[in-house]
Design goal:
215 residues; mainly alpha; 2 domains; 8 helices; elongated
Protein backbone atom coordinates (compact mmCIF):
# COMPACT_ATOMS: atom_id res chain seq x y z
CA UNK A 1 0.00 0.00 0.00
CA UNK A 2 2.14 2.84 -1.27
CA UNK A 3 1.42 6.29 0.09
CA UNK A 4 1.56 9.57 -1.72
CA UNK A 5 5.04 11.10 -1.76
CA UNK A 6 5.52 14.87 -1.97
CA UNK A 7 8.74 16.35 -3.34
CA UNK A 8 9.91 19.53 -1.63
CA UNK A 9 12.60 21.26 -3.70
CA UNK A 10 12.71 24.92 -2.74
CA UNK A 11 11.19 27.51 -0.45
CA UNK A 12 10.31 26.95 3.17
CA UNK A 13 8.59 23.77 4.28
CA UNK A 14 5.71 25.83 5.61
CA UNK A 15 5.15 27.52 2.24
CA UNK A 16 5.33 24.18 0.44
CA UNK A 17 2.71 22.66 2.73
CA UNK A 18 0.44 25.68 2.32
CA UNK A 19 0.59 25.38 -1.45
CA UNK A 20 -0.10 21.65 -1.45
CA UNK A 21 -3.01 21.88 0.98
CA UNK A 22 -4.60 24.80 -0.82
CA UNK A 23 -8.14 25.63 0.35
CA UNK A 24 -9.53 25.97 -3.18
CA UNK A 25 -12.32 23.41 -3.78
CA UNK A 26 -12.77 22.21 -7.36
CA UNK A 27 -15.73 19.83 -7.12
CA UNK A 28 -19.30 20.97 -6.67
CA UNK A 29 -21.16 19.83 -3.59
CA UNK A 30 -24.81 19.92 -4.57
CA UNK A 31 -26.84 17.28 -2.72
CA UNK A 32 -23.91 16.52 -0.42
CA UNK A 33 -25.19 16.17 3.14
CA UNK A 34 -23.46 14.52 6.06
CA UNK A 35 -26.14 12.75 8.05
CA UNK A 36 -25.45 11.76 11.65
CA UNK A 37 -25.20 8.16 10.45
CA UNK A 38 -22.28 9.01 8.16
CA UNK A 39 -19.13 7.89 9.95
CA UNK A 40 -16.19 5.50 9.62
CA UNK A 41 -18.19 2.56 10.94
CA UNK A 42 -20.96 3.03 8.38
CA UNK A 43 -18.37 3.47 5.62
CA UNK A 44 -17.05 0.05 6.56
CA UNK A 45 -20.28 -1.80 7.37
CA UNK A 46 -22.62 -0.26 4.82
CA UNK A 47 -20.44 0.84 1.91
CA UNK A 48 -17.97 -2.00 2.36
CA UNK A 49 -14.99 0.36 2.37
CA UNK A 50 -11.82 -0.88 4.01
CA UNK A 51 -10.40 1.66 6.46
CA UNK A 52 -6.64 1.86 5.91
CA UNK A 53 -4.85 3.66 8.74
CA UNK A 54 -2.03 5.87 7.52
CA UNK A 55 0.83 7.85 9.03
CA UNK A 56 0.95 10.04 5.92
CA UNK A 57 -1.11 13.19 6.31
CA UNK A 58 -1.08 13.70 2.53
CA UNK A 59 -3.11 10.49 2.18
CA UNK A 60 -5.87 11.48 4.60
CA UNK A 61 -9.33 10.67 3.13
CA UNK A 62 -7.81 9.48 -0.15
CA UNK A 63 -9.69 6.65 -1.84
CA UNK A 64 -7.53 3.79 -3.13
CA UNK A 65 -7.90 0.28 -4.57
CA UNK A 66 -10.49 1.33 -7.13
CA UNK A 67 -12.53 3.14 -4.47
CA UNK A 68 -12.69 0.04 -2.27
CA UNK A 69 -10.66 1.55 0.58
CA UNK A 70 -10.14 4.94 2.21
CA UNK A 71 -7.04 6.04 4.08
CA UNK A 72 -7.40 7.81 7.41
CA UNK A 73 -4.70 9.75 9.24
CA UNK A 74 -5.31 8.82 12.88
CA UNK A 75 -2.67 10.87 14.70
CA UNK A 76 -4.98 13.33 16.42
CA UNK A 77 -2.46 13.98 19.19
CA UNK A 78 0.11 15.08 16.63
CA UNK A 79 -2.36 17.50 15.07
CA UNK A 80 -3.32 19.01 18.42
CA UNK A 81 0.28 19.67 19.32
CA UNK A 82 1.24 21.51 16.17
CA UNK A 83 3.19 24.52 17.40
CA UNK A 84 5.87 24.77 14.71
CA UNK A 85 3.64 26.60 12.25
CA UNK A 86 4.45 24.03 9.56
CA UNK A 87 0.82 23.42 8.70
CA UNK A 88 -1.80 26.15 8.30
CA UNK A 89 -3.80 26.28 11.51
CA UNK A 90 -7.03 26.19 9.51
CA UNK A 91 -5.91 22.98 7.82
CA UNK A 92 -5.04 21.35 11.14
CA UNK A 93 -8.38 22.37 12.61
CA UNK A 94 -10.25 21.07 9.57
CA UNK A 95 -8.43 17.74 9.65
CA UNK A 96 -9.49 17.32 13.28
CA UNK A 97 -13.03 18.19 12.21
CA UNK A 98 -12.97 15.37 9.66
CA UNK A 99 -11.93 12.99 12.45
CA UNK A 100 -14.81 14.29 14.56
CA UNK A 101 -17.11 13.69 11.58
CA UNK A 102 -15.93 10.12 11.01
CA UNK A 103 -15.54 9.21 14.70
CA UNK A 104 -18.39 10.92 16.61
CA UNK A 105 -17.57 10.94 20.31
CA UNK A 106 -21.13 10.25 21.48
CA UNK A 107 -21.65 7.16 19.31
CA UNK A 108 -21.15 4.25 21.74
CA UNK A 109 -21.01 1.61 19.03
CA UNK A 110 -18.40 3.64 17.18
CA UNK A 111 -16.26 4.06 20.30
CA UNK A 112 -16.33 0.34 21.02
CA UNK A 113 -15.41 -0.47 17.41
CA UNK A 114 -12.55 2.03 17.28
CA UNK A 115 -11.12 1.07 20.66
CA UNK A 116 -10.87 -2.54 19.54
CA UNK A 117 -9.06 -1.45 16.37
CA UNK A 118 -6.82 0.93 18.32
CA UNK A 119 -5.72 -1.89 20.59
CA UNK A 120 -5.09 -4.22 17.66
CA UNK A 121 -3.30 -1.76 15.35
CA UNK A 122 -1.77 0.73 17.79
CA UNK A 123 -3.96 3.65 16.72
CA UNK A 124 -4.14 7.02 18.45
CA UNK A 125 -6.94 6.86 21.08
CA UNK A 126 -7.24 10.67 20.92
CA UNK A 127 -9.21 10.25 17.69
CA UNK A 128 -12.29 9.68 19.82
CA UNK A 129 -11.76 13.09 21.45
CA UNK A 130 -11.51 15.09 18.24
CA UNK A 131 -14.62 17.08 19.10
CA UNK A 132 -18.35 17.14 18.51
CA UNK A 133 -19.93 18.47 15.33
CA UNK A 134 -23.37 20.03 15.34
CA UNK A 135 -25.67 19.90 12.33
CA UNK A 136 -24.26 23.25 11.19
CA UNK A 137 -20.69 22.02 11.65
CA UNK A 138 -21.37 19.04 9.37
CA UNK A 139 -22.20 21.21 6.37
CA UNK A 140 -19.82 20.57 3.46
CA UNK A 141 -19.33 24.33 3.00
CA UNK A 142 -17.33 24.36 6.24
CA UNK A 143 -14.61 22.20 4.70
CA UNK A 144 -12.14 23.94 2.39
CA UNK A 145 -8.87 22.04 2.42
CA UNK A 146 -10.40 18.55 2.39
CA UNK A 147 -13.59 19.53 0.60
CA UNK A 148 -13.02 17.57 -2.60
CA UNK A 149 -11.96 14.37 -0.86
CA UNK A 150 -15.04 14.52 1.35
CA UNK A 151 -17.28 15.09 -1.68
CA UNK A 152 -15.87 12.04 -3.47
CA UNK A 153 -16.02 9.92 -0.31
CA UNK A 154 -19.68 10.84 0.28
CA UNK A 155 -20.54 10.12 -3.35
CA UNK A 156 -19.00 6.65 -3.10
CA UNK A 157 -20.95 6.06 0.10
CA UNK A 158 -24.25 7.28 -1.36
CA UNK A 159 -23.82 5.22 -4.54
CA UNK A 160 -22.91 2.01 -2.71
CA UNK A 161 -25.38 -0.86 -2.71
CA UNK A 162 -25.47 -3.91 -0.41
CA UNK A 163 -23.47 -6.87 -1.71
CA UNK A 164 -23.34 -9.12 1.35
CA UNK A 165 -25.85 -10.28 3.96
CA UNK A 166 -24.02 -8.18 6.55
CA UNK A 167 -24.34 -5.04 4.41
CA UNK A 168 -28.03 -5.75 3.82
CA UNK A 169 -28.53 -5.94 7.59
CA UNK A 170 -26.76 -2.68 8.42
CA UNK A 171 -27.82 -0.64 5.37
CA UNK A 172 -31.15 0.92 6.35
CA UNK A 173 -30.86 4.07 4.26
CA UNK A 174 -33.78 2.85 2.17
CA UNK A 175 -36.31 1.55 4.68
CA UNK A 176 -38.71 0.11 2.10
CA UNK A 177 -35.92 -1.77 0.33
CA UNK A 178 -34.57 -3.07 3.65
CA UNK A 179 -37.95 -4.41 4.81
CA UNK A 180 -38.71 -5.89 1.37
CA UNK A 181 -35.41 -7.76 1.32
CA UNK A 182 -35.76 -9.24 4.79
CA UNK A 183 -39.43 -10.18 4.28
CA UNK A 184 -38.33 -12.01 1.11
CA UNK A 185 -35.59 -13.77 3.08
CA UNK A 186 -38.09 -14.74 5.79
CA UNK A 187 -40.56 -16.10 3.22
CA UNK A 188 -37.75 -18.07 1.56
CA UNK A 189 -36.64 -19.57 4.88
CA UNK A 190 -40.21 -20.48 5.84
CA UNK A 191 -40.76 -22.07 2.42
CA UNK A 192 -37.61 -24.14 2.78
CA UNK A 193 -38.51 -25.09 6.36
CA UNK A 194 -42.05 -26.22 5.56
CA UNK A 195 -40.88 -27.96 2.41
CA UNK A 196 -38.27 -29.85 4.42
CA UNK A 197 -40.85 -30.65 7.12
CA UNK A 198 -43.25 -32.05 4.54
CA UNK A 199 -40.49 -34.14 3.00
CA UNK A 200 -39.58 -35.59 6.39
CA UNK A 201 -43.26 -36.24 7.19
CA UNK A 202 -43.71 -37.99 3.84
CA UNK A 203 -40.62 -40.11 4.42
CA UNK A 204 -41.86 -41.10 7.87
CA UNK A 205 -45.30 -42.02 6.51
CA UNK A 206 -43.68 -44.10 3.78
CA UNK A 207 -41.50 -45.87 6.32
CA UNK A 208 -44.49 -46.47 8.59
CA UNK A 209 -46.53 -47.92 5.72
CA UNK A 210 -43.64 -50.14 4.64
CA UNK A 211 -43.06 -51.34 8.20
CA UNK A 212 -46.80 -52.09 8.67
CA UNK A 213 -46.91 -54.06 5.41
CA UNK A 214 -43.92 -56.15 6.52
CA UNK A 215 -45.64 -57.11 9.76
Amino acid sequence: MGGRHLEWRDGSLGDFVRVYFSPVPVLGHERIKFEKTFNALSLNRIAGLEIQWTDNLADHLRLVNDDQAVRVFHHATFLRNQDQKIFPLEFVSETLQTLALLFPKYNKEMRKWYRALATKHGLDPAVLSSGHLTADDRQIENFKYLHDRLVVLKQVYDESRPRTISQWWYDRRNGVQWYTFWVAILVLLLTVFFGLAQSIEGALQLYSSFHTAQT
